[in-house]
Amino acid sequence: MENANNNQLVQLVQTIGMEKPADAFVKQLTEAINYLLLHDFEKLVYVLYRIDVNEKLLKQLLQENTQTDAADIIANLIIKRQQEKLTSKLNFKRGDDIAEEDKW
Length: 104
Description:
This protein is mainly α. The protein contains five helices and no strands. The chain has one domain.
């Protein structure tokens, strides 16, 4: 069951495909992160690792923005990382003009 919850959060984050996520989505993501911060920090670390959030940048932003809610900072980093992945995927997307025998 715990793995299912991890997957749900990761799937929620992976739905970001728009330039500016809707406020309702950001709020829901922030609430989920805040819950994990308070109740299951280990799971939050796992999710951040799985999403590939830059740990050094996260630490730096948390230290520089002590007056900002940590969940907001983490949510913004997650959204930024997912957008980076989407941009990269679109930039390096292969065409379907490769011959069948050359595909692997």
